[in-house]
Amino acid sequence: MEDLSPLQAFRRVCNLRMLAGVYYFCLLYAISRALTWYGEGDGGLRDALFDLVRFSRQCLLTGVSLLVMVALTEALLAGRRWRLPAALTVRAGAVGLGAALGTLLRYVVAAMDDPGLKLKPGWMVSTIALWALLGGMAYALLLVSRAQRAGRDELTRLFREREALKTQQTEAQLSALNAQIEPHFLFNTLANVKRLYETQPERGRDMLVALIAYLRAALPGMRRHESTLADELELVRHYLAILQMRMGERLSFDIAAPPELLEARLPTLVLPTLVENAIKHGLSPLPEGGHIEIRAGHAAGGGLTVEVADNGQGFGSASGGAGVGLANTRARLAARFGDAAALELEAAQPHGVVARVRLPAEALA
To answer: In terms of domains, do 224 and 280 share one?
Structure first.
C-alpha cells in the first residue's frame, strides 16, 4: 500500500482528468435520456436541447458530489491502517452520502428555476439509489485499477531487485574465484623465485627485482573483475620474462595481437593462468624446454579468440583441463559472458597443447 498524505490522496481522485471523466459520463447519460424524451413534447428541437443542457447540469451536480465525497474518503483513509470491513463500510457510506447530497443539490437548483416544484419522495429515493449504484461501480473500478497498477509496480520493483541480486551474486562469484586464482598464481611464481635464489643467488636477486616490478604493475588490477587484452598481454610478457631468467634458453615466446583487439574486455588473470599452466605441465618437465606462442585474432560472428600454444609434452602428465586454475577460468568466463564464451584445450602438432579462449562480440563493445 502506498503511503500518501491526505492531500495527495484527495488530489489523486479529485483532479482535472477525473472531473473530465465525470463530465463526459454525465453528458452521455443526459443525451441518452434526451433521445428517449425527444418527440414526446410540443416544444421541438429547441426545447429538447434546453432539456438536455438542464439535465446535464443536474447529472453533473450529482457526479461531482460523488467525486468529492470519494476524494474526501480516500484522504480520510490515507496513512491509516484500516481493516478491510471498516474501510469498505466507510467507502460505501461515502458513496451513499455523495449520491444523497447530489440529489438534494439537484432539487435545490431545480426549485430555484421553478419555485413551485415539490420534492417527491419516490423520485428522491430512486435517484439516490441509481447514483449510489453508478458511483459504487465507478468507485470499485477505480480501486481495482489502482490495485492492478500497484501490482504492476510491485512486480517491476521485484524484477529490478532480482536483477540487482543476480548482479551482486555474479560479482561475489567473480570475487571468490579471483581470491582462489591469485594465491594459485602468485605462490607458484614465488616458489620459482625461491628455487632460483637457492641455486643461483645472483640471478635470483635479479629475478626478485623483476618480480617486484611485475607485482607493482599487476597487483592494482588483480581485484578488478575485468581487464583488457592489452593489460593481460603486458602481464604475460612480464611473467614470461621472469621465467626466462630462470629457464634461460629452455624458454622462448612470441606475442602477437592486432591493435584493434587490444581493448577487448575479459576477466582478469585469464592469460597468466593459461601461460602458467603451459609452463608447469608442458615445458618444465622437458629438459630442452620449449616455445610458447600467444596470439589473438578475429573470430566468426564478430568475436575474437586468444590462444596460448606450447610445444611441450602435451597431455601426457597434464591435468587435461581439470586443474583448479583452468576450472576457475572456465567459471569466470561463464559468469561474465554465459555460454557465449568458452575455454578449449586441444593437442598441438607434432606435440604440445593449444589453450583457446573464445570471446563474443560483446567483449569488444
So the answer is: yes
